[in-house]
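Hi all, a correction to my earlier message: I attached the wrong file for Rhodanese-like domain-containing protein. Here's the right sequence:
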Amino acid sequence: MNSDLWVNIILVVLVLVFFYFRFGPTKGLKTLSAANFKQELEESKQTVLIDVREAGEFKGGHIQGAKNIPLSQLNRRLGEIPKDRDLLLYCRSGMRSKSAARILMKNGFTRLAHLRGGISAWTGPVSKR
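and the right structure:
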């Protein structure tokens, strides 16, 4: 085999690994459908709902009761999040909430779930306050 073929094989493998880690499952994170996410919210008054979108997105509409802690601020605002409660995370599409979950897990949070498809998949009421 020539070296160009090996380079192409390595590039393809790297791209596949990137997509797996970016879009694949996150160990320790529950991924919930909109219906299951809504059920979790309704069943537990101890659940903390966190919207990890930026402030402008949050103001445009969010799930009632959500606390806005943008992913870009998460590391410096970890003290605002209780470790002894269930955390429900969401964003616009589900990608940032998965990233937020990874950060939280690295910092000792274990009771995590996120909304598959983000607020785009949400079928419940949205608040603009």
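Sorry for the mix-up. The chain has one domain: 27-121.
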